Amino acid sequence: MRVLGIDPGLTRCGMGVVDGTVGRPLTLVDVNVIRTPSAWAVPERLVYIEKGIEARLDEHQPDAVAIERIFARSDVSTIMGTAQAAGVAMVCAARRGLPIALHTPSEVKAAVSGNGRADKAQVGAMVTRILRLDAMPKPADAADALALAITHIWRGGAQSRIDAALAAARTRA
């Protein structure tokens, strides 16, 4: 299974592609971060993020997309930008009929580190170890995107199978 993990953000949107199956070593395919200047208007930033996601989908042809589920933070403007970027990611994947899974930050941290309250450094260190990398992916958004893809693969793509079954049922109806 090839999974594109997306750590959504308006300023930095992490994207990581991982190949693998449950019980087998995983392989890094690609990792990067889409950056948008804060001076740009939000619509411009969202279009730029969409183009970056579409390019990765074209290039890597994932079987599923795993996106960080938005959770409440104290800064409403951060939540809004993150939610908008997540929405763009979902639209890009849905447009292609790809299964989409949303994983919470604590779920991802627990999956890769064994601790749902792990900090960014711990998550990055475990991603480095799991994917047998020479160096930790930087910035943290890149490591988080890879952690999302790893979590999805390790969980057997369960949500992807549910999404695929629902899509098939809708097509038959």
Task: Describe the overall structure.
The protein has 173 residues and is of the alpha/beta class. The protein has one domain: Ribonuclease H-like superfamily/Ribonuclease H (Nucleotidyltransferase, domain 5), CATH 3.30.420. The chain contains 6 helices and 5 strands; from the N terminus they run βββαβαβαααα. It has a 5-stranded mixed sheet with strand order 3-2-1-4-5. Helix 4 packs across helix 5. The two termini are 28 Å apart. The mean pLDDT is 91.
Unreliable spans: none
**Cross-sheet strand order for the largest sheet:** 3-2-1-4-5
Overall geometry comes to: globular
Name the CATH superfamily assignment: Ribonuclease H-like superfamily/Ribonuclease H
Total domains: 1
Quaternary class = single chain
Secondary structural class: alpha/beta
Termini separation: 28 Å
CATH C-level: Alpha Beta
State the total count of DSSP E strands: 5
Q: How many helices? A: 6
Helix content: 40-55%
Q: Mean of the pLDDT scores?
A: 91
Judging by the overall fold, what is the CATH architecture? 2-Layer Sandwich
In the CATH scheme, what's the topology name?
Answer: Nucleotidyltransferase, domain 5
Report the C-alpha radius of gyration, rounded. Answer: 15 Å
Percent of residues in β-strands: 15-25%
Largest sheet: 5 strands, mixed
N to C succession of SSEs: EEEHEHEHHHH
